[in-house]
Specification:
Keywords: Hydrolase, Magnesium, Metal-binding. InterPro entries: Inositol_monoP_metal-BS (IPR020583), Inositol_monophosphatase-like (IPR000760), Inositol_monophosphatase_CS (IPR020550). By secondary structure, this protein is α+β, with helices and mostly antiparallel strands. It contains seven helices and 14 strands. The chain has two domains: 139 residues, Fructose-1,6-Bisphosphatase, Chain A, domain 1, CATH 3.30.540.10; 104 residues, D-Maltodextrin-Binding Protein, domain 2 (3-Layer(aba) Sandwich), CATH 3.40.190. The strands form three sheets. The protein has a seven-stranded mixed β-sheet with strand order 3-4-5-6-7-8-9, with helices on both faces. A five-stranded mixed β-sheet has the order 11-10-12-14-13. It is globular. The protein starts with a helix and ends in a 5-residue tail after the last helix. Bound molecules: adenosine-2'-monophosphate (2AM) and calcium ion (CA) (3 copies). Adenosine-2'-monophosphate binds next to strand 4.
């Protein structure tokens, strides 16, 4: 069954790519959500509606959690649940027309089974099937190796610097690591950790659709995904995120224990 679902998701992703590239040729319809910098476009909504209608048609028993609200009200992870971010990195989508991803995680009874992070512009699909490895397009991704702070490049959200505890958490950490990056798409940052281009990614205030797909992929590679305090994340709740290579994760957690 999972092989068939996997094939179907990949086909749907390719279909959405065609529509999204086409939409980028026209004027986007842009709205704001929680604040003036929290953007949403017609393409976010249409892409989510596309997935919801296809899933309902092919897998009527499955439940769907989607950022734009076209899915179901899901209060428990029993059965099969799809967690979808139709465009992750909407600000990049609007301003840069690149560096945005489609993110999908599929869980069975709360266990991640299939994960997808799709770089629409580059046509690069990062995916994992639990117990069967992770891939970038057709290439197998090798397991993540141990890492240390001094040689680490970490991804983070620059807004974190304004948080009340930044002086005792983010600032010391940024001094100790080799370098820091911010790509503006949680999915992209998870994909970069999965491929070893970055060693960790740290963010406050993410939602399940920001991390569900990435968590499945990174965990399949032996990486660790928790909140900033090192606790397991709940896939139905907002959470901070600390994702890193094994070993490095524990060292990074120490910066956030105070
Ligand atoms: P989004 O583009 O799907 O909204 C940007 O640093 C990252 O944080 C993106 O992955 C973005 O996802 C996510 N994010 C979560 N909550 C956000 C918010 N309120 N405003 C902007 N980006 C948010
Ligand atoms: Ca959003
Ligand atoms: Ca997102
Ligand atoms: Ca989104």
């Amino acid at each position: 069954m999972w092989t068939e679902v996997d094939k179907t998701v990949k086909q749907w992703l390719k279909e959405t790519r065609v529509s999204i590239l086409e939409a980028l040729e026209h004027t986007l319809n842009i709205d704001t959500k929680s604040n003036a910098n929290d953007l949403v476009t017609n393409v976010d909504k249409e892409t989510e509606q596309f997935f919801v209608s296809r899933i309902k048609e092919h897998y009527p028993q499955h439940k769907i959690v989607g950022e734009e609200g076209f899915g179901d009200e899901v209060h428990e992870l029993e059965g099969i649940v799809w967690i979808i971010d139709p465009i992750d990195g909407t600000m990049n989508f609007v301003h840069q027309k690149r560096n945005f991803f489609i993110s999908i995680g599929i869980l069975e009874d709360g266990i991640g089974k299939l994960g997808y992070l799709y770089d629409v512009i580059l046509d690069e699909l990062y995916c994992a099937s639990k117990g069967e490895g992770a891939f970038l397009n057709d290439k197998v991704l090798p397991p993540l190796q141990q890492g240390n702070i001094e040689e680490a490049i970490i991804g983070f959200n620059p807004a974190s610097i304004h948080s009340e505890d930044a002086a005792s958490t983010f600032i010391p950490l940024l001094k100790d690591v080799r370098g820091a990056r911010s790509y503006g798409s949680a999915a992209m940052e998870f994909a970069y950790v999965a491929t070893g281009r970055m060693d960790a990614y740290i963010s406050k205030g993410l939602s399940p659709w920001d991390f569900a797909g990435g968590k499945i992929i990174v965990e399949e590679l032996g990486g660790i995904v928790t909140d900033l305090r090192g606790n397991p994340v709940n896939l139905l709740e907002r959470s901070s995120i600390l994702v890193a290579r094994p070993g490095l994760h524990k060292k990074l957690c120490r910066y956030f224990q105070s």
